[in-house]
Amino acid sequence: MAEKAAEAADTGQTSRTEARKAARAERTAAKLAREIGSFAKEHGGAEGQLAYIGQAGARIVLVGEDGAWGDLVAPTYAVARSAAEKSGITLHAAFDGEFALKVRTGPYEWSRMAGSQIGGPSNGS
Q: Would you call 88 helix, strand, or coil by DSSP?
């Protein structure tokens, strides 16, 4: 009898813990969706691509209609997908082709990519 009561208590605790985790994930997705929406509004719309980045979660890469780009990190791929869906952006399966061609880079990005080869900052600075 005591075993069943302990088992029921464990199940109740587990379901409460799971409910808290789900609520936290929902809040995180909603916050990310707002950030995606702000980016889209600022850049005339946006499209995105999700990339799993291991234990760190998932990266949401955003490309605005004006060519500006940015990214956000979600704690899980599921949260990233939920945020993207809530924001209403178009998601691409890969960062290639026409989607990648929309990105516009400026002098800062070019100097960072080339580093000291063209007088830009090195990776250490």
A: coil
